[in-house]
Amino acid sequence: VRGAWFVALWALSTSAIAQRDWGAAPARPAGEGEGPFERLIIEAGLMVDGTGAPPTGPLFIIVERNRIAQIIHGEEATGVMRGPQQRPGDKYIDARNGYVLPGFIDSHVRLIESYGRASTEPQYPLKLLLAHGITTISAQQRLEDADWALKLRGQSARNEITAPRMEVWAEFSAATPEEARSKVRAAKAKGISGLGEGWIEGPLDVMKAGLVEAKRLGLPTIWHMDSATTHRFNALDAARLGLSGSVHWYGLTDALQQGYPSPRFGDDFNIGNQRSKFSAMGRLWKQVAPPGSERWNQVIDELVALDFTLEPTFSVYEAHRDLMAASTADWNRDYLHPLFERDFQVGYGVSHLYDWSTTDEAEWRNNFHLWMQFVAEFKKRGGRVIAGSDSGYTWALFGFGFIRNLEMLQEAGLTPLEVVTAATYQSALAMRIADRVGSIEVGKLADLVIVDSNPLANFKVLYGTGVASIDSDGRPARAGGVRYTVKDGIVFDAPALLADVKKLVETARGSSKEATEE
Ligand SMILES: [Zn+2]
C-alpha cells in the first residue's frame, strides 16, 4: 500500500524533508548478539536449506567467522554423527531437537516511511524483524532519502547496529523521459539495489523511459503500479518492456480485464479516496478473467515466460477480510507501539478501514480466493513468488506480518516447503543477492534461523508470541518462537530482542498516557 500522503507531503516541502534527520539506530550494545566466532558449530536435527530441497538431518553446520564453511551430514541409519572435533574457543549450539533454516528475506519494508511517520525509535521495527528470523530486508525509500538509508545499510553491514542486512530500493517521480532516465542512472550510481514500490511516477512516456533505462542498466524493478493509470499500461505491458515484478496486484487485474467489460464500483466511487478505493478493490478480481479462462491462462503463461516475479504481500491486506482479527491479534497486546496503533486506526494512507462493512469483508474474502488462485497457478507453472510483507500498514506489524504472510502463501496453495523457498532463495534471486544469501550452502554468508519446533508443520511456531498450547499440567501455555537468529555469523537471542521491544512499547505507552492526561 503506497503512502500517497507521503508523496503529497514531499511535493509540499521537498527541501524541508530532504534535510530532515531521520535519526540513527542506536549502536549495538555489548552483549547484544554474540560473535562472530572463529568457529560456530550448530548441531541440528533437521535443516531446510531454502533451495527447495527436502528437509534433511541430522547434521552439523560449521560457520567460520561469517561464512558457512562446511555441512556435515549425519548417518541417519545409525544416528551416529561424525561431528567435528571441538576446539577451545568454538561456539556450540545444540539444536539436535531443532530446525535450521536460512535467514528470511522480507523483500518489502518501507522503513523510513514507517518509523519516520510514527516517530518511533528505529530499533522498534529492526528488532521485531530480527527476532522473527528476518536477516535481510529490502528497504523501500524515496530516492531523495537514499543517503540516509545507505548509511543505515552500512551500519548494519558492519554490525554496528542490531538490524537485518539492508538492500536499498528507491522510488521517485519524474516529469520528462530524460529526467526519468537520469534518475535511474543516479540511483544506480548511488549503489541502489533496485527500483521498487511506486518507483516511478509520471506520464506514460516517462514511466516507459524509466523502465527501459532500468533494464538497460540491469537494475531490477518490482513495481506497485499506480491503479489510476494501469488501465492504459498494465503489468503485462510493463513486463514486456522489462519490468521484473509486481508488488500487491496492481496492473495484473488490468491485464486480466482484456476481453471483459470495464469494472463497476458503484456510482460514488472515487479512487482518490482510500476508503472508497479499497472497498472497490475488494470487488476487482471477480470482474476480470476468471480462473481457468483463456485470458487468465494467457496472462499467467506470458508472465512466467518473461521470468516475472509476484510479490503479493497478502498479509498487509488481511484486515480487509477480517478487521477484528487483525486489530486484536495476539501480538498487539505486548508489541504494538502506541504510535502505530494510532496510525492503524486513523493514519491517512496507513489505514482506511473505518466504517468497514460486512459486505466489504465478504467481498474481500472472495477477492482473496480469486487472487490466491492466480498466484498459486503462476507458481505451479514455474513463476517466481516471493514473500515481502509491507508491514507497518493496515495492522500488519513488523516480523509478525511477515510470518502471517507465510501462512497466507500456504493458504493460497503453495506447499510449506515452497513457502520457505519463497521467503528465502526465491526472494534472493528476485533481489539479485542469491550469490551471498538466501540458502544454506557452503560459501554463503551465515544467516540462519534456529527454531525448536517444525515450521513446515506449523508456521505459527515462528511468531514471537508462539502457538497457543497446553502445558504438562493441562494449563494454557504458549510454545514456539524463533530461538536464535544468526546474522553474518552473529548469534542473536530472539526472545531477548522481543523482551527489549516489549519494554520499549511499555515505556511508549506510559508516555503517551501521560501526554493524554496533560
Ligand atoms: Zn505498495
Describe the structure.
α5 links the parallel β6 and β7. The longest helix is centred in the last third of the chain and has 24 residues. With about 525 residues, the protein is of the alpha/beta class. It has an eight-stranded parallel beta sheet with strand order 5-6-7-8-9-10-11-12. Strands 3-2-1-4-13-16-17 form a seven-stranded mixed beta sheet. Strands 14-15 form a two-stranded antiparallel sheet. Helix content is about 40%, strand content about 20%. The site of zinc ion (ZN) has 7 residues, from loops. Zinc ion (ZN) binds next to loops.
| Distance, first to last CA | 35 Å
Summing up helix and strand content along with how strands pair, one would put the structural category as alpha/beta
Identify the bound ligands: zinc ion
Query: How many helix segments?
Result: 20
How many runs of DSSP E, i.e. beta strands? 17
Low-confidence stretches: 1-20
Going across the major beta sheet, what is the strand order? 5-6-7-8-9-10-11-12
- The whole-angstrom Rg is 23 Å
Largest sheet: 8 strands, parallel
Proportion of helical residues:
25-40%
Percent of residues in beta strands?
15-25%
Shape: globular
